[in-house]
Amino acid sequence: MASSAFSPLLLIILFITFSPDPTSASSRKLTALVQEQPLKMKYHNGALLKGNITINLIWYGTFTPAQRSIIVDYLSSLNSGHSTPSPSAASWWRTTENYHGGASTVVVGIQTLDEKYSLGKSLKTSHLILLASKANKLNSINVVLTAKDVAVDGFCMNRCGTHGSTRVKTGSGLKSTRFAYAWVGNSESLCPGQCAWPFHQPMYGPQTPPLVSPNGDVGVDGMIINLGTVLAGTVTNPFNNGYFQGPVTAPLEAVSACTGVFGSGAYPGNPGNVLVDKSSGASYNAHGEKGRKFLLPAMWDPKASKCATLV
Q1: So which residues are the signal peptide here (predicted)?
Q2: What is the pLDDT of residues 157-177, one digit of tens each?
Q3: CA 237 to CA 27: how far, in whole Å?
């Protein structure tokens, strides 16, 4: 998910596109200039992912132990107890409880390292599905995370992350099961001005000063924003018939409907009022485990009928 070009009157919206083709992914896409429209998130009566959900991670390419730790700590923080200072990543995630069907609890499951780039450094959506299917487990979301030197179809051009669903054959091969998957790429080298905003100056539009990333890694802190976007979209619209606004081929989902909003007072090109660490100058709006801080995007709250921010 990422930074986009904004003008004072028009908003360039980055959003998740969920294709009706079960072999293709939903992606946070960069569209043409469109005027802001009132948000009306509609429930399309489909299944949502609820209960205990395992997040299996497929690390594709080279990630340092420190980078992996940031992302794992973020995922673990989504279920932190009340001991975590407010505002917390867990309180952000609890907004998904307001969607029909109850709460979801996510835990980190299997982690697979593919440091030798088994499919090369230029991937298509079919490659992402292949990688995700290797970690398939019931009631899980298999997340492919690509390193900063990996190009993915549409990455930087029209998407920073994606989610979708597909079926894989099990057992004798006569049956198949549906599973949800997601992908997020590290944009540090390829397009930080698109997919790591607001931690990098935007590629287009007014060159506003970037915020200081809370974990000292622009690419990975950008991935946190995009990972939160695709995970929220996955649990609230896993099979293309959950919660979304707009056409089924290009829906706005729980977080992508609130693109560019991180704090109160946000407007196109400005992330809004966020917290600043006095010692490091880093910007954040959520506390996590192990003293971590994160900048998380606003999420549409069905009960309040608005994009909810933590600060």
Answers
A1: 1-25
A2: 989 999 999 877 665 555 777
A3: 12
Whether residue 160 contacts residue 1, with contact meaning beta carbons closer than 8 Å, is answered with yes
CA-only gyration radius of the chain, Å: 18
d(CA 22, CA 240): 9
With contact defined as beta carbons under 8 Å apart, do 203 and 194 qualify?
A: yes
Q: How far apart are CA 247 and CA 254, in angstroms?
A: 15
Backbone conformation region of residue 123, classed left if phi is above 0, alpha if psi is from -120 to 50, else beta: beta
Distance in angstroms (rounded) separating the CA atoms of residues 219 and 67: 9
Contact 262, 295 (CB under 8 A): yes
Run of H or E residues at 227:
helix 218-236
Residue 278, both tokens: 């006095």
CB 111 within 8 A of CB 310: no
Burial of 169 (0-12, 13-18, 19+ CB in 10 A): exposed
Residues 1-53 have pLDDT tens digits of: 332 222 222 233 333 332 333 333 344 444 333 334 567 789 999 999 999 99
For every residue of 17-54, DSSP letters joined together read E--SSTTSEEEEEEEEEE-------EE-S-----EEEE
CB atoms within 10 A of CB 280: 14
Which amino acid is it at 48? L
Average pLDDT over every residue of 265-291: 96
What's the CA gap between 176 and 174, in Å, rounded?
A: 7
Tokens 């003008």, residue located: 7
**Is the distance from CB of 225 to CB of 2 less than 8 angstroms?**
yes
**Element housing 179 (H / E):** strand 175-185
Amino acid (1-letter code) at residue 277: D
Three-state SS letters, 84-96: CCCCEHHHHHHHH
Residues in the chain, overall count: 311
222 by DSSP, 3-state: which?
A: helix
